[in-house]
Amino acid sequence: MAEDRPNDDLNSRIAKARANEQARAGDSRLGKPAKGYSQGSRVLATLLGALFGGGVMGWALDQWLGTSPWALLIVLTLAVIGAFMNIIKMSKERAE
Description:
Layout: H1 7-25, H2 35-65, H3 70-91
Helix pairs in contact: 2-3
């Protein structure tokens, strides 16, 4: 019966199946995104986060202080400058 097979047989079949799957998929690194892709995603998230965060904070300050539109413009400008400083810092990292 199939239930009477020893565990070694099951382990060898699992190892053989994994080897076949790895051979079929080719290089195992293909499943992971490259570092350049992740850096691009970080740059995009940094820029969008700064624009959205600066806009919301500036708008809230304008509503609270009644200084429309100056707080929005100042906070948004500072957020964009900060985002570009972070992007420049990220661009100095070495992509593999």
